[in-house]
Backbone:
């Protein structure tokens, strides 16, 4: 039985944070959870690729793309890499592309929107830092819970 965000909120109360409802579901898995890993970039995705090429071990990659809607940070090739390396899901504060392909891929993906334009390839950004968007903080090692109701973050591991 998947962990439901409503149940997490009922159980943890103010000990969890609820993201503003800005995200759409793109992967085949609407519900996913795992420890947070972060990357902060702007219209540039080589660091995203670099992280997804490492063992995910059930983690969720939170990509703070600054909310840009001008370039996609994740597409079907990066999603396939995430699946291959056992990442539980992706949360993208920005755009994805290849939405049709992503819809049948066995991974959870939440993002703001779609954009067909690819990202830049400068390799700029930061990894493993606390990022803030959608009204909450995403801290590496904390846990994200995602489903059709939204996103919840807590320092506490799944029950």
Residues:
């Amino acid at each position: 039985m998947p962990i439901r965000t409503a149940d997490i909120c009922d159980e943890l109360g103010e000990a969890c944070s609820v993201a503003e409802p800005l995200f759409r579901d793109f992967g085949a898995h609407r519900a996913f959870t795992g420890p947070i890993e972060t990357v902060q970039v702007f219209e540039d995705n080589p660091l995203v690729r670099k992280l997804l090429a490492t063992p995910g071990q059930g983690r969720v990659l939170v990509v703070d793309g600054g909310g840009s809607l001008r370039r996609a940070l994740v597409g079907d090739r990066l999603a396939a890499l995430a699946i291959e390396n056992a990442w539980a899901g992706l949360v993208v504060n920005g755009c994805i592309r290849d939405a049709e392909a992503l819809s049948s891929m066995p991974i959870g993906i939440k993002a703001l929107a779609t954009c067909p334009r690819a990202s830049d390839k400068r390799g700029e950004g930061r990894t493993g830092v606390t990022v803030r968007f959608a009204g909450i903080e995403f801290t590496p090692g904390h846990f994200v819970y995602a489903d059709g109701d939204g996103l919840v973050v807590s320092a506490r591991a799944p029950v």
Q: What stands out?
A: The CA atoms of residues 36 and 141 lie 5 Å apart. The first helix runs from residue 5 to 12. The chain has four helices and twelve strands. The domain at 5-154 is CATH 3.50.30.40 (Glucose Oxidase; domain 1).
